[in-house]
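Archive transcription. Copying these from loose printouts into the bound notebook so they stop getting lost. Printout 1 of 2:
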Amino acid sequence: MRYSCSKLNIYLLVSVVILYTPVLSQSTDLSLEWTTNNNIPFLTELENTIEDEVAVLSTVKGIIVIYKGQVVLENYYNGSSVDDVYNIWSVTKSFISTLVGQAVDMGMMDDPDSSASNFFPDYDIYYVESIKLHHLLGMSSGYQEDWGFLSNSTEEILSGEANGPGAFFYNNNACHLNAHALYYGTGQTPHEFASTYLFPFLGIEDPPWSDGYLDINNGSYGLQLNLRDMVKLGQLYIQDGFSGNEQVLSTEWIERATSPQVDTNWGNYGYGYLWWLPQIGLSYQASGAGGQLISVFPDYDLVVGTHSDGDSQALQAAIRYQIAPLFDRPSIAINEILASNNGCCYDDHGENDHYIELYNSGSDTVDVAGFFLTNDASDHDSYAQIQIGSDSTNIAPGEFLLIWSDGSPSQGILHLDALLSNTGGELGLYTQDTTTVIDIMAYSVQAPDMAYAREEDGIGDWVYMNPTPGLSNATVMDMPCDLGVVYVSEAHASGDSEDYIELYNSGGSDCSLEGFRLDNSEDLEDLTFGAVIVPAGGYWVGYENQDSSFTSALSDSGDIIVFADPGNNILIVTLEELQESDGIELSQSFDANGFGCYTEPTPGTANGDCITLRNDENLLLPKRLALHQNYPNPFNPTTNISYDLFEGASVDVHILDISGRMVKKLVSGYHKVGNYSVQWDAKDDKAQTVSAGVYIYSFHINNHILNKKMVLLK
């Protein structure tokens, strides 16, 4: 039996290296605790800016920075802590706007352009006919301030002094009418409504909220939240109203609430539906007295929140002019690397080269032509520039671009100097000025055909995974089967149409047989598989001459079955002469190494027990010399090395380092015919634990030497 198997085989010919398969990252589930990301490339710059601009303010209590749905910085000051709850003052207004939007979305309330009399039908007040809910949400109802509003009845507030609608007038009294409109439309107080339709999706549990007439909660101020919970409202808006997979607020309402609805005549501030719209910074903001802020920058995927007892203007200036600009850089991330390509993926020249995958997590197309990649940020001579001259360097939102790090820039715009090493290193991505860092990462020893990639595209932690070049790392792919993990497990050869071949997937994941071939000849001209999925622990059974099955007749006097992967690695099993037992034609069952015995037929189910016939005991013995790939690989701290002997012989197994120096003599002595397995615990001949890296296990028998590589991780 000839048998060769790699850890993973994805046989791709990537002729178009920008793949138009946009998969935007799933929105953060805001009902859960925030996750943190301490690996943004400009974290030190951000920390220094906040230290210089925010920490020096004597009244600031806390600041939290949310970038791409994760906490990248969170600090508390002046005796405050993460669990402290504060009155968020007029940030409450933006929560009320959200609740009204939800009620409108669900048809519980009429459109804001409807007359206010639709929302208060029980009161025959002339002025109410002249205004709309739109005016109440946009601070343009004409009502004057009345600080006793919380205890006033609905009729008393509606009957208050008014100067006619249209002009902006910041007014808590009139704003509170939005809470009354919500109450009459839904039959629930704002707290009750939010406890069903909003708070659970933001992970907020029964927050204090002041109330008054009919227990209607204060629609202008009085909601109390900690900082982590407060900023979730801003993230909900950035995520188009989604919390995880649940959309709790429509994109139409978000667009309406954060678009100018009235001319404020307040200089750089516009106003939406109870959201402030600073004209500088392309943002919107919920703002409460003293510096309770939710500043939202959708173009940067950024939310900044603060609690404070004063210095609101200083905080707003720091956020808008110092903190947010740090995030004004291309939304490109190094998303995946493959630094040891032994047969995984092919570039547009049919070569197995290292690759670097870039991902655009933003909302605009980015042209990375002229950007630099480097494996040593301190050495500008090591900077390799992505070539200019083709639109192939454009990355649209949610898409990926493969850069081949092969040392052959002459092969095309997307080919660069060799920047990756399977022994580990660092990789940085910079803009054309070579000083603005976009992303930077470090990696250790890389196993053959195993990618090092972000668990979530653009922002996730780095993990080892099967390569997904040009696809989302979160994609559940039809991964190619691994020869030896999927193997010929049973066959029936009688020379008639009832003959079958069974394949078994012994792995823990579903896999695809696409490109695999099956025949009773090494010509492999019979069956080439399409996109056939074999479930984990499941079977494929093909009957002779059925659709999408083999056609070669299996001989009842003995035959072979040849099973090959797309890389022409082959596994051959030998069929012996057909036998019967108690009048039943027997099948032949095999293990992953091709060792077989006679069994009763069990197509598509677990093989039965071996049936001993007169002379078949030799079928259980190896018929070829074989050294198998160690398992697991990569490994830490132990791995198993297996080998098969078809005749007795003296055997030595040595562990060598990558330079060929002896590390450990693992096996030495005479072996009988049989199957063997030995474990290595990553220690040398002196019982000292060896360092991480690539090692060779060398198998010596008679005049033959077989070598295979393995990777020790730390």
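Printout 2 of 2:
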Amino acid sequence: MSCNCKHKITSQFPCLCDSFVHPEKLKIGMGLTDIPRQIAGFPEFRRAMLFSLRPKTGDLTDKNKHALDFWKARQPDDLGMMLLEMWAYICDSLSFYDKVISQEEYLRTAMRRPSLRKLVALLGYLPGPAVGSTVYLTALADGRSKLKLPEGTAFRSDGFEGGSPQVFELDEQFVIHPLTNKWSVSPPRPSVILNANPQHLLVFPKTEIKTGIPFLLLDLAGNAYTQATWVLSAESYKGQEGKFYRNLALYEHAILPLNYPLQHLELYMPSQSAALWTMTVTGTPPSIDEGSKTIVLSGSHQAIQSGQHIVITRNKECRWYRVTDVREVVRMQTGPRPVVINTISFDTPGISIPVTQLTLDTTLNDSSKKKAGAATWTESNKSELVVHFSMQQPGAIMNDQKTSLAFDDPIRFGEKPEQPIDDFITNDFFLTDKNARAVKINRQLNYGTSSLWPEIKEEWDPELILPVNAFGNIVKATMETIDEPFHKAVAVYRLFAPRSPELQFNQIFGEPSRTNSRYNLTDRQTWQRASDACRLRHPHLLNAEGVVKHATETWFVTDYPEAGTLYDMMHSQTLKIDTGTALRVLKEVALAMQYLHSEKPPVTHRLSMYNVWLDSSRSAMVMLADNFLPADRDTTTDVYHFGKLLLHVLQLVEAPLISIEPHDLQNDLLDPILLIRDCTR
């Protein structure tokens, strides 16, 4: 047996092509994103084990053979082959996990967070704390004066897709204004030619538009695109805003470049026409004088004035001109001829009539007027030429409104915004479209033009779908983590009807995380009250969730204890309260009062069995009802109402006599906890 390769022949292998090396030497370089630590897979391990069963030398004597040298696998379900492949599978798994475990020891390839933390700890790196997500929110305010939203003002979202609500707090103070709440953005109307060389023009009509006549398209920017064209039809077209336009179909494409401003174009429609002078009388000058740029009409037309534009047509060909001079000339309708009367011959001078002679800005066949390849107009064509004059504007050329808002479209408002008189300026705005997609932009509000400028600043893609609204009160907030569920029962009760509302809805809850407590504004009367209520936190006070303004009324939202009020419990026919529970409830009420009176300034509150609630474990929860007042009342009044509450409760249960020392009444009357000290011994 021979081989064509150049490998060295050995005694074990006729050629190195038949050699097999296992495992191959690992080659692990630097900076890899994947460490090749897996030395082999299932096929390689299977082959290696089969290869190891071959004799190690060329001597085939029995003493040099392995115990399995005579084993030959013939069937697919051979037991020996199955055991060999099972072991190859185990080797494959072990080699794979060797690679996975090795990669966790390298910073670039580690996948598990504990591995990363262990590796960076060796470098002395301390990971920074998690940073809460930040959002930009729009605030809607009532009234006519600017408002200050202090640091810590909280906003709560709805629960999305079954998840918990999200709460965001202001990291700094923001000032908002009711006059910059919201505006509707007018649908943009492109002010340029949208298609090069259009064959249709959209016109908002102001008079009846005739068809089958030539129109003059005048370029106010220098006549570069001034042209005359026939209008074949003017179909009615309903625009996006519901107005009706006329869609003019032109005989030829108008020569206009893409994005040419419509403000430079005016459309004119002639209301009169006249033919050229065609009578041929000996000695009469021609109707078309190429040298002097003059033409003579068939009659007197005083409606034509110098400086006006005219259109001259021959069949479907149109050319436009500007009249530089108008004068009356006389043309012979009939020439001189002899007349015989009573055999006497007389010579008559003929009949002459006044006609209008026009001097044009160019000759009839000037290259700026005649299209390439068009025929030359001469005196022989005068009977075919028609002059159209007395131009009128049938309407303005425009485009239909767009259905979307691009970043380079002008942002104008449908209503004129009212400018604040208290020097309030905002430069941040939100644009929200029909699909609730929002874009934040930084622009200036021009109250004179009711628009935001500069017109090109930030870019967004895709375009916003109309209708689009603009919001001017933008605040930046940071997300706070909350663990409470979104759906839960709350108690809502009315505070009073406000006089000067400023915000429509606010919700406040949670432990205050800063010295200025979490609260939002409802109006100037309830501001301080809502702030104080939401700051108060005690195990036996109903936690304030927020303040809601509906129409002209303001409502206070708190947790809702499931067991109802103390009055319901004491007068229930099925649920009985024992003496120990009653005394515990009274003590919890006293602890809540002690907390309120310890505030600076003290908080007073008229207690009754109707504003003491019980939770599921029958623990007392004092509710700050509409008679919650700041420290403009003496705390002794609260002690008096607590005494009434204590007597009412003890009348409904069998309780031992309360022993109160005289010095307690003299020295510690202001501390309600002492009133039931002996009851809980």
